[in-house]
Amino acid sequence: MTEHLRPPVPRPIVIEGPAGSIEGRLEDPAEDRQPGVVGVVCHPHPLHGGTMQNKVVHTLARAMHELGTPTVRFNFRGVGGSEGAYADGDGELQDALAVVAWARRRWRCERLWLAGFSFGAAVALHAAATARPDRLVTVAPPVSRLQVMPASRPGCPWLVLHGDLDELVPVASVKSWVAGFEPPAQLRILAGAEHFFHGRLGELREVVASFLAGPAAD
Q: How do 20-27 and 11-17 pair as beta strands?
């Protein structure tokens, strides 16, 4: 992992989605070469201030950049410059799949790292069945606040990352939920971290980058 990576300059993009234009940001740490994998990151709940500018979303993209991977962050329908209106998760799932398809075309690359935070974690998990990512990262999945089941266990290596002081999603509910999958996801609990990982973003980035750079099998 690069310790002193200069973050790539975010480039505004517009992607045609099922509810109209989707506002996004493309970031490519190595524009002079063909990437081996591309990344897409999903943001928190649109009705509670979630946007692609969220610090955890930035951090997930940064972990990918440190491994030389280009990323797309984007706003779900009705957020920022994205057209449409909140659609109870179903429409947001379609937005995510449209962005994944765009990213694969843009870089002519099928391999995908898919990540999401909170509401975005639930969207990413559901999107995995269709998008078939090479790796999936779900941070603070809202298992006790938003229905994230039923969802089949992704066929790829899967990281669930949670804080044991999460004030919105009890860590015990996440542990129980993860244990219900066969095989379970790789679960990492950050001691002393709350839902938004204030003061812990550097550690979060290191955990995610280590997972993404790891061996192909769980």
A: antiparallel
Alpha carbons within 13 angstroms on the beta-carbon side of residue 65 total 24
Torsion sign over Cα 190, 192, 196, 200 = negative
Please list the alpha-helical segments (H only) found in the chain.
Answer: 55-65, 90-107, 119-131, 171-179, 201-212
Each residue of 17-53: pLDDT tens digit? Answer: 999 999 999 999 998 899 999 999 999 999 999 999 9
Separation of alpha carbons 67 and 27, rounded Å: 13
The pLDDT tens digits for 53-91 are 999 999 999 999 999 999 999 999 999 999 999 999 999
CA-to-CA separations, 188 to 44, 71, 96, 118, 158, in angstroms, rounded: 20, 23, 25, 15, 11
> In angstroms, rounded to a whole number, what is the distance separating the alpha carbons of residues 154 and 130?
10
Model confidence, pTM = 0.95
pLDDT at residue 217, as a whole number: 46
CA distances from residue 3 to 65, 76, 206 in whole angstroms, order as listed: 11, 31, 10
The span from the CA of 41 to the CA of 56, in Å, is: 10
Would you call 155 helix, strand, or coil by DSSP?
Answer: coil
What residues form DSSP beta bridges with 25?
12, 73
Q: Kindly state the DSSP code that residue 134 receives in the 8-state scheme.
A: S
